[in-house]
Each structure stands twice: as C-alpha cells, then as structure tokens.
Amino acid sequence: MRHCFRLKKLATPPQSATNHRFHSYGWSRALNYVAKCYLNEQGEPDTNERDSVLTDIILQYEAAHWADKYNVNAPKKIDFIRAYALEFVDRPGSPMFAVERFIAGKDTYGCGFLKHNTNSGFVDQEVRRQTPQVFSAHSFYASQGNRLVADIQGVGDLYTDPQVLSVDYRFGDGDLGPRGMALFFKNFRHCDLSDKMGIPIFPLSRNERKHQAKYEDDESTLSEGSPLLEALISKFRMLDDNRQMRKSILVRPIDLNCTDSNDTEKRNNFSDVSKTIRRSIVASKKKMAGSIVKRTKSDVDEVTTCLQIALTDAVFDNTTFHRYACGGLKPRHRRNSEDDDSNLRDKLSKRKSAALMKVVSAPMEITDETKSNLGKVHYHLAYLHGQYRFPEIVCPDRIDDDESPSHDIFSVVFHLSHAASLANSQA
Q: Mutual orientation of helices 409-421 and 206-213 as an angle, nearest 10°?
C-alpha cells in the first residue's frame, strides 16, 4: 500500500533576510508537491521497496515517451508530469519517496482529478473523454504491440501515475501483460478521433458489440418496477455470484510461473491455457446441445465465418481503418433520438468531429511484430471468456435463466479464430 504526503519546496533564504520573515513569505508562494512511499505492516515507510519506487518513476517517463509520439499528429496535446526520487539518507534504512508536482484545479469541462481507465479493463463511462482512451490504444500500435499505457488519470490532459502494460511483464506488479491489454480492448470504443489518428479497429464479437451498444440505454433514468431495472438488478446479482471467480482470473500468468532462478526473462504463456479453453468449449457444446439454447441460423453463420477467418491470414486494409479506398474517413452513423438533449449532443459531436477531420493521419503501420502481439491479445481475450470473466454479456436475452451457459461460446470461438489468423501458435 502507498501513502501520500503533501510537501512544499522552499528556496534557500538569502543571508540578508531573517529566517522567520523569509519562511512566512515563501511558504505561501512555494510550489506544492506530493511524495509517495510504500508502507510496511507497521504503517511506516518500507525501506525494502526502493525498486518499486524507482519502477513507478520509470513508468512516468515511459508513458511520457509514448505521449510525445501521440502528440505528433494529435489535435489535443497531452503530457505526463515529471517524477523524481527523494531519498532521506539521514533516516534509518534511507527510505525513498517518489515526488511529483501536485495537480490542482479543474479542466475545461469543469472536472477535477479523474481516472479515465485502469490496468484491469475499467473504462470511464460517465465523462467519457475520447483522448485518454485513444492515447492508450495509440500507444499499443505505436509500440508494435509491446506496450500499452493504461491507468490514465489526472486533471485535463495532464496525467500522472500511469501503469504500462508490456508483453514481457517488466513494469512491476501492476503489469498484467497481454491479459491487461485484452481487458482494455474489450471495453475500448472506436470513435472519430481514433479513425483520424489512423488506429485500426480491434474486432469484437457480436455479443461484445451488443453489450457496448447497451451503454446508452443503461445511462437513462430508470423508474422502480421497470423491466430494464429488474434486468440490471439480475445482472448485478450475476456479477456478485461470479466475483470470486473473476478475482482468480486477475492473477497474472507470470505469478503462476514463478521459479527460484534469478533469470530476468519473463514468460507470459502457461501450459494449461489451451486445455482450459478446450474444456470450456466442450462443456458449452454439451449445454447448447439441449433445449435450453437452440442454435439459430445466425449463430451457425457466425461460427462458420469465424472458422473461415481462422484459415486465412489477417489483412489490414482500408476497412480495418474505417476508411474508403481513396483514404478518406468514413462517417460514423449514430442512432436517432427524440430527446432534445441527445440531439444537441449529437450536433455538437458532429461539429467536433468535423473539426478533427480537417487533418487526417495516415493509417498506423502494422508490422509482423504487431500482428504477433495482437494474436496474443485475442488469445488471452478468448481465455478470459472461457473462464467466465464477462458474465454480463452471456446470453443477453436470458439474464434470468439459471440454466443458461456460463460464458459466451461465440466470443471464445471468435477471438480464437482471430488469434489463429494472426499466426498465434497456441490458438
């Protein structure tokens, strides 16, 4: 656990000034800082967490590096605040603190300090700013799939305390690797800004897209006794029943492969993943063979399409970047609403999108390394579906059915097929 301390940086008083007068004058004008340290079980600064403090500082500069690459073509510039290491050499154990400037105030939207996403898949659905989410996706493709900057938080476009996800788990305990990347892309929604930045569309299954489309309905005001409210309550009951199972899924694969050797190489694959997915597919087929869930023509067509995708190599063409053959952006269609506020928001959004589209970046380059890492992300997303990580999207039309399948078999097949098309050996 970390603890934060508020501190000020005072200048050295001149020899001609009295300490009392200079201190009272400088204290009100001194710069505000925040010092962060790790605490032990006794609630004191832990002197054994020096490496963790240095890792937190490295994360700030790593995120700032990808922010500079994002700012090259971004309509709104972003930045990460600088962090420093402060060591108290005169204290027992020489504890070390991570120090950075204190961020105060509000942004242009009237909001203070906000957390826009996390390293475990959370994406803010209240303020719903596009810039932080698009930056996270941009960092993935700019690094050829080796990095993804998550846990974006701060005031306005000045961010702090990020978490970088990597394919080799090199950034501390919060680095969930490809699994964290899969959790992010499962909730990431493409928008006009991501199209403008040349970010390819991350394919999602039919049920995943339906779940994303429900966000607009869930944000409306619900009255007591309404069918939608009862459905939401049932969905939350299902989430509570699966909480312990979801906690076990969040264990990092690297934790399962811990050895006593001092080898610094990190491995992100573990042997029983393929067997687990196979067992989940077989179990789901047995459930679906009965009268509970009947296969429809659309379900059969979806599985057939997925299997055809698995037999061919992935192609990143104009459709992947939501563009015409000439390179121009395709407009995104929005649902019509009778609400005046919704119509006003749509008009403002269209004006903002038109302003963003004045300068369109070229599609981001998709290398073989990017394809390999994308295959890992799809494979881990299929594994998470097979391990009941997303019960909220299982059989959306049968939320109250206790005998419904425990996970979405179509999403498992969908992401396994895409992982296979990206030459993922495990898929």
A: 120
Mean local confidence (pLDDT), 239-264: 51
| Whole-number Cα distances in Å, 305 to 280, 308, 317 | 20, 5, 18
Do the beta carbons of residue 169 and residue 147 sit within 8 Å? no
Mean pLDDT, residues 19-25: 63
Backbone angles phi, psi at 285, to 5 degrees: -65, -40
The sign of the torsion formed by the CA atoms of 415, 295, 217, 247 equals negative
Which residues on adjacent β-strands are paired with residue 170? Answer: none
- pLDDT, residue 340, reads 53
* CA distances for 257 relative to 52, 107, 248, 279, angstroms: 21, 44, 15, 22
Which tokens sit at 228?
Answer: 């939608």
Q: Which stretch of DSSP H or E encloses residue 244?
A: helix 243-249
Cα 69 → chain centroid = 19
Rounded to the nearest angstrom, the gap between the alpha carbon of residue 101 and the centroid of all alpha carbons in its chain is 25
Give the pLDDT band of residue 276 (cuts 50, 70, 90): low
Mean pLDDT of 305-329: 86
Nearest in space to 112 (alpha carbons), one of 154, 75, 151? 154
In this structure, of 50-54, 156-160, 233-237, 353-357, the range with the lowest mean pLDDT score is 353-357
Amino acid identity at 198:
G
- What is the band of 265 on the pLDDT scale with cuts at 50, 70, 90? very low
pLDDT at 241: 61
- Label residue 156 left, alpha or beta by phi (over 0 means left) and psi (-120 to 50 means alpha): left
For residue 307, give the nearest of 287, 326, 281, 283 by alpha carbon.
281
List the one residue out of 245, 254, 387, 249 whose CA is nearest residue 415: 387
The pTM for the full model equals 0.76
In degrees to the nearest 10, what's the CA dihedral of 122, 123, 127, 131? Answer: 140
